Amino acid sequence: xxxxxxxxxxxxxxxxxxxxxxxxxxxxxxxxxxxxxxxxxxxxxxxxxxxxxxxxxxxxxxxxxxxxxxxxxxxxxxxxxxxxxxxxxxxxxxxxxxxxxxxxxxxxxxxxxxxxxxxxxxxxx
Length: 125
Fold this sequence. Notes:
The chain is mainly alpha-helical. The chain has one domain. 88% of the residues lie in helices and 0% in strands. It has four helices and no strands. It has helices at residues 2-36, 42-66, 72-105, 107-122. Helix 2 (42-66) crosses helix 3 (72-105) and helix 3 (72-105) packs antiparallel against helix 4 (107-122).
């Protein structure tokens, strides 16, 4: 039984990484578009990318990763919290990394934190 749970969690996390990776690519494209083409400050570009990521990610995570309808309100609250934390972290590292590399460097932290929070609070079964 424990082995089955471990295998299930592994494949769920794997699906999360694949779906999240695609959603992250989309979100980063929006972030870079906001910074470069729209000339937005990093806070606004990040907010725009999170909004797009929320809209696409909620359905994708629910259907493909957690196989649950989930709670959209909790999903938004989780991503709002992650956004605010990410803005603080970007502010801390941007002098070293620049605005373009900061969110990429922070991805491992964001990915793990989001997986745990989404599984526990938005898509709990």
